Amino acid sequence: MIPAMASIILAGVSVEFPVFNAASRSxxxxxxxxxxxxxxxxxxxxxxxxxxxxDVSFAVNEGDRIGLIGHNGSGKTTLLRVLxxxxxxxSGSATIHGECVSLxxxxxxxxxxxxGRENIRLRAxxxxxxxxxxxxQFDDIxxxxxxGDFLDMPFRTYSSGxxxxxxxxxxxxxxxxxxxxxxxxxxxxEDFKHKADRRLREIVETTKILVLASHSRELLRKNCNRILWxxxxxxxxxxxxxxxxxxxxx
Amino acid sequence: xxxxxxxxxxxxFADISAALKKHHLATTFSWQDVAQRYxxxxxxxxxxxxNMGVLIGALGFVFGTLFRTPMQEFLPYICVSLIFWGYISSxxxxxxxxxxxxxxxxxxxxMPLFTHVLRTLYRNAIxxxxxxxxxxxxxxxxxxxxxxxxxxxxxxxVILSLNLxxxxxxxxxxxxxxxxxxxxxxxxxxxxxxxxPIMWMPRTLPEGISRLLLDLNPFYHLISVVRDPLLGELPSxxxxxxxIVFAIVGxxxxxLLFGRYRHRIPYWL
Lengths: 250, 269
Fold this sequence. Notes:
The complex is a heterodimer of chains A (250) and B (269). Chain A is an alpha/beta fold. Chain A contains nine helices and nine strands. Chain A has helices at residues 22-25, 27-35, 76-83, 116-126, 131-145, 160-171, 190-206, 217-223, 241-249; strands at 7-20, 47-60, 65-69, 91-97, 100-103, 178-182, 209-213, 226-231, 234-240. In chain A, helix 4 packs across helix 5 and helix 5 (131-145) packs antiparallel against helix 6. The longest helix of chain A has 17 residues, at 190-206. The radius of gyration of chain A is 22 Å and the shape is globular. With 269 residues, chain B is an all-alpha fold. Chain B has one domain (5-33, 42-268). Chain B contains 13 helices and no strands. The interface between A and B is medium-sized, with 31 and 28 residues.
């Protein structure tokens, strides 16, 4: 059996957000506007549309390590969500082959009142890890946190550094085909930082496609072989790292 | 471009079957939801049981006296009624929030959307599981023995839950788009509570209007298929038929709606 290739193809992708002001979002107004004879039409009703992405096309193949750059509001987060299959483009098409995991908020799903062990389970489920996978990996994750007996204590008793350790260890235990990251995960204390950086590099190497949004030139230079520069929801420039980075950072 | 009807259905089926396959997600999160609420209390989730028990005792006493019904008959009746009404009404109420409440997850993790609806139903089923413990206690207190008919409550529970799921799915989608639907539903449920024989018994209704008020009320049929067997009666064939018809019609509408708007849900959040 030939292993399926991971790939992402975006063709003419646009994403438009409806902005419901109080008027159009409520049913009451819908009903009232019908009752008044429809003199107030939908446009006056305030059906404002914000375009997050406009006509974005590119293909990502296995081995691509893509860095996303652009100013705030340039459409990076929206693009990350399209790439992870959360937003389906309002026009154009996004074809995604491969299992995609996003490391955007690594604390999603954590319950402060639950113990460390329970939280490993919760977080792993949120990452899409199957119960049997978790059973296999549980001890490794627990050991990687370096929290020892604290794993049986409620999460809320942890220092913020310890909380990050647990979230990080669990979130990075997964080996997806496509990995989407919003900023590099930097983890508190020096001692854990090296371990964590090594682990991250390991994932980045084993994953077939990496998409990393970042503002750090250094980080992008080290991890990416291709850079997408987004501006006003469009691709401003798409090319090898050593061409796009100087153009963007000047 | 409007998607075809088969495309819409395929879309809905794909999401729902993925959610059923990743069943463990809904179970994990729903247990977590219940555990979270009672994490630091001594009796934990059994506060649910205690609260319900007190309510049943109080309402049983008040209404039993008011209607001059013998306690031996009225107490088991209101016990089962309130427990299952609790299941129905909070499933529907929380079903409105199924997608809105899971915004954080929906916008960050790719997960079947139906998982959030399942999670909501499971959470309420777990709560029901705690509450139902009162039922044998009440039977014991009034000195009644359960009959084998009790077993018929199980298929009743299944058809009730299947109906709740489509209601929740439709409301989840609608409430994500129109936020004040949640309030509308809350009001509606309040009214239904009084229109449906839950705190009062069907036979206390005056002759004539009674059949209409009962037969045209879907909630009467939904609650009857579980309640009657637990009270040692056979649910009427009409009630069962009604529940099956609701399920078929309801699911058809729900699948079409969900398939059509599934992709829009993240945009609405």
